[in-house]
């Protein structure tokens, strides 16, 4: 009995599923303001049995007038982290909106240029997010090609679709 207990304790433990809340139908509210029920970005995941996922993230890129960017990407849970390649084509295909209408081509081109200048050094790299609880908030610690980037750390919460969270300033 003692030997069996020791073997169980010594066995490697499976990492917790970082997308368990997404599997339960929740949305990721990034940089939340719980009082206002706003998020700087809202992400949803479709998780597949093999650990791969497809995500959709809508980011508030300007509060007034409201400008948003919706991107779609794919990835996989690896070693308890949410990982995916950062692809230029995902951002080139981003849906850019001004309020409830698509941005005009001139403005969209300018926004895409700005986004490209920020993301340029990250394109083609593997981004991974290690998530941990910090009080009532979750913290996402980001690495690119295995190198930690603490400046990219984000706080988020998981929210139900019916909880009334919307895009807005934190």
Task: Tell me what you see in this structure.
It is built from 4 helices and 12 strands, in the order ααβββββαββαβββββ. The chain is of the alpha+beta class and 170 residues long.
List keywords for this structure.
single chain; 170 residues; alpha+beta; eight-stranded antiparallel beta barrel; 12 strands; 46% strand; disordered N terminus
The percentage helix is: 10-25%
**Structural class by secondary-structure content:** alpha+beta
So how many helices? Answer: 4
Q: Order of strands in the sheet with the most strands?
A: 1-2-3-4-5-8-9-11
How many structural domains in the coordinates? 1
- Please outline the major beta sheet: 8 strands, antiparallel, barrel
How would you sum up the global shape? globular
Q: What's the count of strands?
A: 12
Mean pLDDT: 90
Q: Please report which band the strand proportion falls in: under 5%, 5-15%, 15-25%, 25-35%, 35-45% or over 45%.
A: over 45%
């Amino acid at each position: 009995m003692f030997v069996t207990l020791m073997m169980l304790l010594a066995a490697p433990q499976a990492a917790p599923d970082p997308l368990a809340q997404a599997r339960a139908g929740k949305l990721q509210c990034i940089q939340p303001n719980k009082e206002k029920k706003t998020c700087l970005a809202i992400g949803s995941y479709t998780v597949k049995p093999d650990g791969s996922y497809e995500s959709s993230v809508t980011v508030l890129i300007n509060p007034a007038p409201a400008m948003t960017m919706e991107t779609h990407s794919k990835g996989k849970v690896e070693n308890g982290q949410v990982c995916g390649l950062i692809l230029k084509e995902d951002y080139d295909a981003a849906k850019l909106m001004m309020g409830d209408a698509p941005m005009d081509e001139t403005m969209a081109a300018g926004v895409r240029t700005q986004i490209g200048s920020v993301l340029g050094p990250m394109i083609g790299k593997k981004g991974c997010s290690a998530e941990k609880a910090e009080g009532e908030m979750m913290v996402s610690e980001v690495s690119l090609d295995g190198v930690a980037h603490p400046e990219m750390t984000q706080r988020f919460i998981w929210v139900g679709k019916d909880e009334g969270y919307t895009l807005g300033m934190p």
